[in-house]
Amino acid sequence: MTIFKTAVQANKGDLVQVHLIVLEPGERSSNLPEATQAVPYEGWIKGYLLGEHADIGQMVRIETLIGRQLSGILTEINPIYEHNFGKPQPDINFIGREAWKKLEDEG
Amino acid sequence: MSNNDYYSVMSRKNEILKPSVGIDYEQFIISPITFDYEGLMASPGFSLADTQKIQRETGVGNTPLIELKNFTKIVRLSALPGKGARIFIKDERCNPSGSFKDRRAALSVYHAAEMGYKGVVAASSGNYGAAVASQAVKYGLKAIIIQEAYDSRRVGQPEILEKTRACEAYGAEVWQMTVGPELFYLQLRILEETHYFNASLYTPMSILGIETLGYELAQQVEQKEGRFPDMVIITHAGGGNVTGTSRGLQKAGATNTTVIGASVDLRGLHMASDIDFNRKSFTTGHTGFGVPFLTLPDRTDVPRNCARGLRYLDQYVTVTQGEVFFVTELLSKLEGLERGPAGNTSLTAALGLARELDENQIIVVQETEYTAAGKLHVAQLTFARENGVEVCRGNPKNNIPGKLIVIPEDVGQIHTEDFDLTKIRQSYIRNTLKEAVGYFPEEMDIAFMAEDSKSSIEFVREIIDYSKAIPI
């Protein structure tokens, strides 16, 4: 079960993520703040690997979730959603308790 | 073979967009300034009853209206005697993909399917993308969602990453892009390549879809209370929510209801800045969209924008990020409703405004949105701290967008800041004149601008005369 390991090689049909540069810094819109102008316009897309095998960093061809084909640099195999519920925030813990106390004090 | 560099694609904008929505905008354009707004809105041929029927088919709409009795109680504790209006909320989270955006997507995707398009494309980092992806599944269409997701370090807001997940859960092809207005360039390239439908937020379908929201809430209040609400508060970004809801209220006969737009104050942060991108906790419903879309509504991906918030707003207010986070927490703890923060912008404004209204008055907050990993106040505050934004408790007046999030210490500190609509109207008229450079406005154009900015012919004339005195 390679799915639970950090795979370095993808096989045909694996869900992968590819990276592509849509516009290099010099090709971007001229109407941009400096910091944005200095970096490429790039993106990431997920899909299923079309070739037999591929390593991270290789140019590959994928079939996207809707069946379109496109090429990009392989960045991740079985990509994980890593956003989460965040860390406890002491600044909001008081809100409910204090509000109920106020309501109860008023009867 | 077409050239796909930035400026070549942008110069093909009109020819790419024309076949992408199935509407001939040309027939509604009367002059460089005036167009037949109502004619355009009527052009897809959907009556309110048609829209309701189409939405019911996929479980969209008919969401509950809930009175927030504990909110009303706590507001009254900090109000003068006899003050503190009753607050109701329309629980739009009950829609299939978890937000009112399903209403917009429902009609657009239905229309796309009817017209024979094979797929739909939407540029959205938010709930609309998920709504389009969800509706596309129901009609067997392909969906491509283009998101502005990351800064150049590939750091993304948790709320947007949750939206990527949701769209992919519905089987959509998602493009997670870095910061930049070139999102539109990419959208054009994908439309040109696929010939899919452009599920723009600014078509007649997208606005007609929201009319049912205003209509429903007016009817629900009428049935419960025997009268229409005194005030409806609407989170404002691109203008669609304000426009559609207001039109729905009017169709229900609630013509005396005050319409308030509310945005999170993010003034000072640049929307195309790679650096500012992750210094904001809110990805929509903020002034970075709210103001420019009022002062120049036609800055969109269709020839004429049907979302024209300035036509309908009676008042425009702002609240701070910290206040919205406070109210999001309060909604869970006092009302048992755990909902996403961005959708609580209008609710936050309601707490500030209810204090000033009489006890017997009724305020309706017209949306909530779903919550999930990434899409909640705790995750967003964690992200803000990790990206150098300071968080503290205190007076929300000390809030500095991008630098300091102040969580109020008490409900009594929540207040709204009035955004001067007169100034926005002036900017709208100046921008409209600038866009039509070389064209001298006629009587009908002056009447159009007066209607489009909810002002008067005299008001428009005054600005035109003033503009003539100052060379642009």
List the helices and strands and how they pair.
The complex is a heterodimer of chains A (107) and B (472).
Chain A: E1 9-11, E2 15-23, H1 34-37, E3 41-49, E4 53-55, E5 59-64, E6 69-77, H2 90-105
Chain B: H1 6-11, H2 13-17, H3 37-42, H4 48-57, E1 65-67, H5 69-77, E2 86-90, H6 101-114, E3 119-123, H7 127-139, E4 142-150, H8 158-169, E5 173-178, H9 183-194, E6 197-198, H10 204-225, E7 231-235, H11 240-252, E8 258-264, H12 287-295, E9 315-319, H13 321-335, H14 345-354, E10 362-365, H15 377-386, E11 390-394, E12 404-408, E13 417-419, H16 421-435, H17 443-452, H18 457-469
Parallel strand pairs in B: 2-10, 3-4, 3-6, 4-5, 7-8, 7-10, 8-9, 11-12
Antiparallel strand pairs in B: 1-2, 9-13
| Biggest chain pair interface | A-B, 44 and 62 residues
Rg result of chain B: 21 Å
Low-confidence stretches of chain A: none
> What is the fold named in CATH at topology level of the domain at 54-98 and 205-419 in chain B?
Rossmann fold
Range of strand content of chain B = 5-15%
Order of helical and strand elements of chain A: EEHEEEEH
- Which strand-content bin applies to the residues of chain A? 35-45%
Relative helix content of chain A = 10-25%
Primary descriptors:
heterodimer, A: 107 residues, alpha+beta, four-stranded antiparallel beta barrel, two-stranded antiparallel sheet, B: alpha/beta, Rossmann fold, four-stranded parallel β-sheet, 13 strands, 43% helix, globular
